[in-house]
User: Fold this.
Amino acid sequence: MQKFQLELLFQIIGIGSASGLFFKNDTLFIISDNSKALYEYHISDKKLDTHIVLENAELPQDNIPKKLKPDFESITPYGEDLCIFGSGSTENRNKMVQFNTYTKKAVKTLDLSDLYLSMQYFADIKPEDFNIEGAIYTGDVWYFFQRGNAANGQNGVFTVTAENLENEFSILYNSYKLPKIKGVQTSFTDAILVDDMIYFLATAENSNSTYQDGEVLGSIIGSIKTDSMKLKLKQTISNTHKFEGLTLFKNNKDSLEFLLCEDKDTEVQQSDIYKLTLKK
Assistant:
């Protein structure tokens, strides 16, 4: 069993339903699955900036109704930019926003309907079971993480090589059987790349729907080797938390430190940020 330590590091007031993280230079970028904003939290001075990345005057900034929300679930660096992805679990959740970290503006918005439909066809996933919850860009390929929290429980990773993500791409797919917690299979909720290893979060949620939330039974951290795409590490880290965001905090000689965020599926505008230390 891998040695680990999990601790509550700090709380951020002003963000609810946190679903993805990216840490850089004492700054934590955070997305929420019911917001049209990207949040920028400066850790040292505890200052929170808000950047609207989806211009739609008909939608509130936060606590967007479930049937209307863009459902931003994934964030990954793309050079000096960040790419933010909707989950694809309904037709209005197919957007990708590219955000520049220097100008603090969205520089591009893409409709990924063709990509997401191609993923569903390629992996034989029904539209109602499709749910992208993690994304990684390596500089050469994209990895997208399908969360199997629907009735068929199909977890998988799409490897996408693309000239552009709208209409020039090729797809590979690997499916995974993840561990269970209290008899319920865990399912991918986020992932990042550290050197040549993918680290991922997966949560057990007692629901047969990608749309409706269920009882939270815990979360695991795991790893996948990029050269073989084989599972390596599988470690339960909580029996109560639904961790949905993962970013590297420190890469030490003997350990890795990650920051995690928790989606409590409430309208409370507060996000708990945890630190997970994992022995190498």
Summary: The mean pLDDT is 93. The longest helix spans residues 113-123.
